[in-house]
Input
Amino acid sequence: MADVLLQIEQLTTQFRTERGIFPAISNLSLTVNKGEIVCIVGESGSGKTVASLSVMQLLPPAGSIASGEIRFEGRNLLALDQKELRKIRGRSIAMIFQDPMMALDPVYPCGEQIMEAIRIHTRTSRKEQRARALELLEQVGIPHPERVMKAYPHELSGGMCQRVVIAMALACNPKLLIADEPTTALDVTVQAQILELLKKIRREFGMSILMITHDLGVVAEMADRVAVMYAGQVVEEGEVRSIFHHPRHPYTQGLIRSIPHLDKPSDKLFSIPGTVPGIAAIPSGCRFHPRCPECMAICEREEPKPVATSPTGSVRCWLADKPKQNGAET
Amino acid sequence: MNNILLDVQNVKKHFPLKKGVFSRGKGFVKAVDGVSFSVYQGETFGLVGESGCGKSTLSRLIMRLIAADEGEIRFDGKDLLKLKGGELRRQRQHLQMVFQKPFESLNPRMTVGEIVGAPFRIHGKAKGAERERRVRELLEKVGLDPDYVNRYPHEFSGGQRQRIGIARAIALNPKLVICDEAVSALDVSIQSQILNLLKQLQREYQLTYLFISHNLSVVKHMSDRIAVMYLGKIVEIAGADELYASPQHPYTKALLSAIPHADPDAKKERIVLTGDVPSPVNPPAGCRFCTRCSEVMPICREREPALIETADGHAVACHLYTKE
Output
């Protein structure tokens, strides 16, 4: 299983703002193995989207990567020039976004847009591109591929558009698919369809997926491994079962207890007090300490380092540094 | 049973579709097409459905923000649809709303004090120092610092803004509060804070909620009874626990099975619906769900099923349950 595809090491991405330069993510390390689905979960402002944009180096002009390494199949992506990068983007690493309507160009038919993706990365005739586009549309479960080839994005529903975007992402058989909140804009029944589709793609093409989401339900359903982000850091990482059944970090514990469960009725939901700090107001010490129910003196002073909890898991918390406590698990 | 606070009978709203220079009618969007339900005093009535099913239109109809084409909405014994001018405005103080988008539902040019004080101003309730005192009290009630009165909405986070919206909604001790996707724009940790706040306020002020959301887990957590909407119709109404334990309508079953469980070991049969929700301009004839239903029968394409009670307090609109 230890066949590493993407390795992010100590990545710090900063943003220039009117009030100075602030890191949106700091010292983020994350690995995606071949054929694995890794989910980054976190609340808005935790830096999960910045992490995914950093991998693709599609950061907005105000953002820049300050330090760290992003290795894809052993190559450091940060050392590549634009031309080499362009070969990787879309071909080896593809990305799908939250709002499928925004990801498609409204003035071209969908088929044309899929064919463009094929055209850019391979030497093929228009006829071959067309045939491939039709094949892709079929693979993503679109009922009338010929009709959708000619359709403009506004003629399709959100779920259909997301399928077209996924078809486009699959055009060159990428090894890694980065999916940033791919189902957030969709209804539950359509979300279920798209999640099934992503799983099918992973099964059939052996693709790795790095999925970004705020929905713990989606995480439980999709992920092999999970990274929980808070205020620009990964605070806990591990196998999906250990994260859900034995969360170690108080933030992960709080997050899991905050969601209402269908089968467990409760009158009062657990809630984490306060809000996620902005990048300009990161607390000292452990970034979660102002909201943490188990905050100790050391948490306010010193930032905890990630501590290994299993061969593939780690947690960034002072509690984990001590021998396991009873209160640390739920 | 308790008293009925809100009684909606056969309400319809069809939006005309216009096309061309002469604005010729090109059919209608049947957003809400014959919906009936009642909300009892003190309960939370949940309304779930996917986008486009008409749940927001329905909430606007009840608030009289738009006029219904047909039907009757009785609130506290009065027919809201027949009220006009001052009388309608007087009724509205008992009928408040918390909106989905905390960034768009607060006027950016007004201070928090002015926003939360607006209901008092409009209804001529409290003035001057008294109003200020009430506003501060309300802010404290919703968990905000009373000294925020002179700040502007942009200084607050989404969760805090939603608290301001809630303070405004409960300012006049309303009888009914409509929460239209009130927590959908919030993060999970903030969402649970707001849900707890809403429950606490309900106990304190004996509020009745009409709680509209597409998030079934949230609706289940909040509601006593739930109605499921599909394409402008209610397909099933039942007590919250009953609905989740034994859903009857094939759509409700599919909807429930589609929710991702926050438990990686949850093994369940998923009913994956094919296709999308059809357009409300040309809803399918017969049962509106017949195009996606796994148990479709010939009669479903011909006759529309009526909403009938199959068990105590459990009503469903499906031909599977109409035949003897």
About this structure: Confidence is low (pLDDT under 50) at residues 324-330 of chain A. Chain A touches chain B through 47 residues (CB under 8 Å).
